Amino acid sequence: MRIGFGYDVHRLVEGRRLVLCGTEIPYELGLLGHSDADAAVHALMDAILGALALGDIGKLFPDNDEKYKGADSMELLARVIEIMRKNGFALGNADITIVAERPKLAPYITQMRENLAGAFSCGIAKISVKATTEEGLGLAGNGIGAYAVILLEDK
Ligand code: MG
């Protein structure tokens, strides 16, 4: 078995979509980034690559590459999952914590888990997505962060 950890954060700004775990969430602000800035999927991809000791998404999908401008992070995740499989590993389970002062994410958690389970072609029971605030400290509503831990099993 291999364990991997990932962390990402993006700034909240006007005029951008808010996409987390492939789910678009209606909100007056969105995440700024070269791709769709899905911080949760970015953390998850870094966790997979970390478990494989293959670097990080910045190395794989450089943010100065026009190819990845506005990229759908779920499509990038599909490519990272392919790399995981080519290296002989399968998903054990994944646990993601999204840190957001607002908006409230609870109504979207099930959809997020289903999106990720679809990407891995696994049952939803292997995918946990949780959301927490920082009680007005830390990012304090200026951004959204995400932590991901993943367990990979040798196939
Ligand atoms: Mg990112």
Structural description of this entry:
With 155 residues, the chain is α+β, with helices and mostly antiparallel strands. It contains 4 helices and 7 strands; from the N terminus they run ββββαααβαββ. The strands form 2 sheets. Strands 4-1-7-5-6 form a 5-stranded mixed β-sheet. A two-stranded antiparallel sheet has the order 2-3. Helix 1 (39-51) packs parallel to helix 3 (73-86). The mean pLDDT is 96. Bound molecules: magnesium ion. Magnesium ion binds at residues 8, 10, 33, 39, 42.
Please give a handful of descriptors for the protein shown.
single chain; 155 residues; five-stranded mixed beta sheet; two-stranded antiparallel sheet; 4 helices; globular; binds magnesium ion
